[in-house]
Design goal:
By secondary structure, this protein is of the alpha+beta class. It has one domain. It has a six-stranded mixed beta sheet, covered by helices on one side. Strand 3 and strand 4 form a beta hairpin. About 3% of the residues have low confidence.
Length: 161
């Protein structure tokens, strides 16, 4: 994981309250973007959402002439909350692509999304501190498989849990 990737994940985590969590799996070099939807059953509208996201994914990469390695979706329901997770390879994922997915989620499912209401966008020092802390832990560790970074009051950024 390079510094640019960490910057991207921290920016996305801080700037998008619609995103419930981010996980970076170092061994597979994949990024998982997790959304939590409350009041929706797994059968309701989700096949249409998955199809819409896949179409946008294909169109986006056709326009930018990129060849992603991975695009997967998983849906799990737990105690009335649907966890909708997008999996992408780290090498071709961009903030613009993440923004596209988040806007699609907000467009049709905003009233279902469980959002983090803490406004932390303006705190650049938080981003810098989080990045420095993560890089320090990565450099000190020989086995990068249990890093956590918590956003005060909510979101969790996980490296290879």
């Amino acid at each position: 994981m390079n510094s640019t990737c960490i910057d991207m994940l921290i920016n996305v985590s801080v700037n998008y309250p619609e995103l419930n969590g981010i996980k970076y799996q170092t061994d597979e070099e994949t990024i998982a973007l997790k959304f939590a939807l409350k009041g929706m059953k797994t059968g309701d509208h989700l096949p249409g959402l998955q199809m819409k996201l896949r179409k946008c994914y294909h169109l986006y990469h056709t326009l930018y002439h990129t060849q992603p390695k991975m695009f997967n979706i998983s849906v799990n329901e737990l105690e009335g909350i649907v966890f909708f997770t997008l999996y992408r390879d780290q090498a071709t994922l961009t903030e613009e692509e993440i923004d596209l997915y988040i806007n699609i989620m907000k467009e049709d499912y905003d009233h279902y999304l469980v959002k983090d209401n803490i406004n932390i966008k303006t705190i650049d020092t938080y981003k810098q501190s989080l990045k420095k802390n993560l890089l320090h832990r990565i450099c000190k560790s020989r086995n990068c498989n249990s890093f956590w970074a918590f956003r005060q009051g909510g979101k969790v950024f996980v490296l290879n849990k």
